[in-house]
Amino acid sequence: MTAQVIGSEAQANPVKDQSQLRQKRMIADHYKRLSTAREDGRKVVYTFVPGNLTELLGALDLLPVLPEINALQSGMRGKSAGYIAEAEKAGHSEDVCSYVKCDLGMSLKGNLGPTGEKMPAPDALLLSYTGCFTFMKWFEILREQYQCPVLMLHVPYQGDGSITPEMRRYVVDQLRHEIVPALEKIAGKKLDEAELGRRLAASARAEDDLVKVWESGKKRPSPVDGYFGGVYYVGPIFSAFRGTEEAATYYQELRTEVDARAARGEGPMTPDGPMGKEKYRLVVEGPPCWTSFNDFWHMFSSEGAVVVASTYTRVGGLYDTGFRHDPEHPYESMADYCLGCYTNLNLPSRVDLLERYVKEYEADGFLVNSVKSCNSFSVGQLQMMRILQERTGVPGGFIESDLVDARYFGKANISNRLQSFFQMVEARRARKDLPLPPPVEGRLLQLGRTA
Amino acid sequence: MSDPAEASLQKAKELVEDLDFKHVTSWKTEHPGALVVGHLPIYVPRPLFEAMGCLPVTIFGGGDQLDVVRGDSFFQSYICHLPRSTVELGLRGSLDAFDAFVFPSTCDVIRNLSGMWKMLFPKKAVAYLDMPQNFSPELGGRFYAAELRRVAAMLVQSGAKPLTSEALSLAIVHENQRQALLDELQALRTQEPWRIRASEAYLATRAGTQLAASDHSTLLLELLKGFRERPARAYDNARVVVVGSFCEQPPFGLIRTLEQSGCDIVVDDFQLGLTAIRGPIPLREGEEPLDSLVRAFLVQGTPTACRYVGNAPKGQALLTQIKQHRADGVVFLAASFCDPALLDQPMLEKALDDAKVPHTSVKFSENTAQFQPVREQAGAFGDSLKLWGGRP
Q1: Would you tell me how many other CB atoms lie within 10 Å of the CB of residue A93?
Q2: Is B346 part of the contact surface with chain A (CB cutoff 8 Å)?
Q3: Which of A12, A58, B132, B210 could disulfide-link B140, Cβ–Cβ 3.0 to 4.6 Å?
Q4: Position A439 in a domain
């Protein structure tokens, strides 16, 4: 669910920061380790980004593979169309999640990873059922294919907008009594709790630095793009590296670089080089479209639109509301992490978070990129947009695309919609005294029922 | 000679087609102060609500009888149809008589709809009911019991009677009686599918989602008597299982089309809400009835697309069902954009292929209006089953 710096096509910018080079090296090393995992006698566990237990896997010397990341990498490298076609040929419906189909297609075509090296088959599938129902079906399908055990960690949904003691206990008990023993069996060794604690402490340091990076988006101009750039920033922490010293170093470096950019009054870097004058400050809800990532970004950066905060970059961990992994309470904090991922929040909580971002980051517009593949994100976004518009007074925009199915990215259509949206932001800025048109739902409620 | 089941079937049909929920309003008049709890289609523990003096009523959206205008403005084109018509029902006031709403964990759509509902209808009590995907009594069981208590507390706060062990035991007894009659109905379909058509069984079962268990039992007794007494002759149709209907319901005309195309639907999963627990819920001496309810969910749950099957082989339950009901083939009938059903389907198809069981698949929306292609496809499938056992 996050971008990672693989190959030159990911970012055309020739001048890379230290942190970018570090991330690239970390990822290349990880894929190298995966490619030789069998020869090296290392065990491999496939798992998902939201609710991942990377510190636990690392403490047991297990190598994680994240199929969502493989899928988005395939999308960025132009491979997803072929992989999706392969999965649909094998009987998977065009209606369902393109990440799933892309991943299945990739494995049907030889399971070559982003670096072109063959990915190892899993020794186990760690199914962290956090914020997405499709994850369960995805790993049921992979289990049929790989014939390996699935370890289910059921993470309850925050239906009432909070984590109850019962929910926390349920997750903690599953971790203690089922997940850890099963992982120990696969790893062939006992969990070293001290090592787990060290990793959780490293995670907390990285999380502190990442939050500072996010909060730099409150400055004018913002030195970061919290969506397009943000997906690179979350690469290490959302994937195989949270809990490692190298990831902590990466975030320290990133924070230093961002602070320096802010001190120089510079905006974010884009694929076309440094961004020009900051014209629009936006909050974005929903994942990006990976198959046309740079095109999509260009539609914003060329207009001077910077995304000061986004929710997609909170899908693998929501840290700017205060959560940190805690070595003193390892199981409880792993549980809270899983329970607190963005798509595990109920819709009213998601609206509250977006409202907070719009206000605290002084955004002058918010935009929903609704992706066909992800019901977890998409269902309710139209309503969220209308409520946000009412609460914040800033205009909302809505575009549609998909994660890795290029058939759903209509470049001209999206570009037109964005142009209109920017005009609306401009108009609103010029005439703040004018009321916004009543949102559709408001009109409906006036005409219809108010229960 | 008139059909002895006709009057009862008409009663069931009226309940199923009542999109203004007039029966709910009547029930409330007869039960002053009692609450009506609306819930989305997949399983909720109905005895819990009945024990608190509430009437649990399943909301299936608007089917093909509702013009969805406002509901559509809340959902993108790639979202299934059920939430649209459900929102439409809410906005047009059809659900005003409902006091509380429960959204059982089913899929991401129903889950998010629970939050939408909270924002759309802030004066109503709304709960998302999380079902455990861990089936250990100490883990999933304990969590589920806490979930049930949480929902019960919400209902008490809304004016329902507090939950007592006695009332819950009685409600479970009533539910078991209903389940026994549903089993009888199923047995009759398996034995003599020409005596009770799938569309009739559908009405007989679905009507129960609008009634208290004991009222449904009364209706089922009438219907069973009528079905048994009606003159009937056997048809040489293909025996098929229909799976995948899940949550969004097919239009009634689509079920009729399937049965008119030469297929006897000997078993289906149209009404998972009433068939999610297999067999009676055992009440044990010295055990809290709430724990009995929990245990039944953990160990007697019907395998569905929204229930994690653990490391058991996928499709095993379907193969057992085929054998048990002597079916010749399977018709997959999934709603468009229904992730759970559509993601499940290739796995089930593979299990059928491995066991050499013929199958075909059809997609629908609740408001699908064109049945001719389905008639042709199902007709050809039924013919192939009769002529060649479905195999090339």
Answers
A1: 21
A2: yes
A3: B132
A4: no
Find the CB nearest A95 among B90, B118, B337: B337
Q: How many domains are there within chain A?
A: 1
Any idea which architecture B237-269+304-392 has in CATH?
A: 3-Layer(aba) Sandwich (3.40)
A2 found inside a domain: no
Query: pLDDT (tens digit, 9 = 90+) per residue, A337-349?
Result: 999 999 999 999 9
Question: Strands B100-104, B238-243: parallel, antiparallel or unpaired by DSSP?
Answer: unpaired
CATH classification for the domain delimited by B1-59+95-234+285-302, as one of 3.30.460.90, 3.40.50.11890, 3.40.50.300, 3.40.50.620: 3.40.50.11890
| B244 near A CB under 8 A | no
Give domain status of residue A440, yes or no.
no
Phi-psi map region of B326: left, alpha, beta (phi>0 left; psi -120 to 50 alpha): left
Q: How far is CA B17 from CA B25, B169, B265, B357, in A?
A: 15, 32, 22, 35
Domain boundaries, chain B: 1-59+95-234+285-302, 237-269+304-392
pLDDT digits (tens, 9 = 90+) for A21-79: 999 999 999 999 999 999 999 999 999 999 999 999 999 999 999 999 999 999 999 99
Interface touch B128/A157, C-beta < 8 Å: yes
Domain boundaries, position A362: 8-430
Asked whether residue A284 is assigned to any structural domain, the reply reads: yes
Q: How far apart are CA B322 and CA B300, in angstroms?
A: 19
Does B114 lie at the interface with A, CB-CB under 8 angstroms? yes
Shortest Cα distance, chain B CAs vs residue A449, angstroms: 5
Q: b/e per residue, A332-356, with b = 16+ CB within 10 A?
A: ebbbbbbbbbbbbbbbbbbbbbbbe
Q: Which residue of B146, B147, B314 is in closest CB contact with A140? A: B314
**Interface contact flag, A375 B107, Cβ < 8 Å:** yes
Which 82-121 residues of chain A touch chain B by CB within 8 A?
90-93, 95-97, 100
Supply the pLDDT for residue B51. Answer: 98
pLDDT bucket at B1, cuts 50 / 70 / 90? low
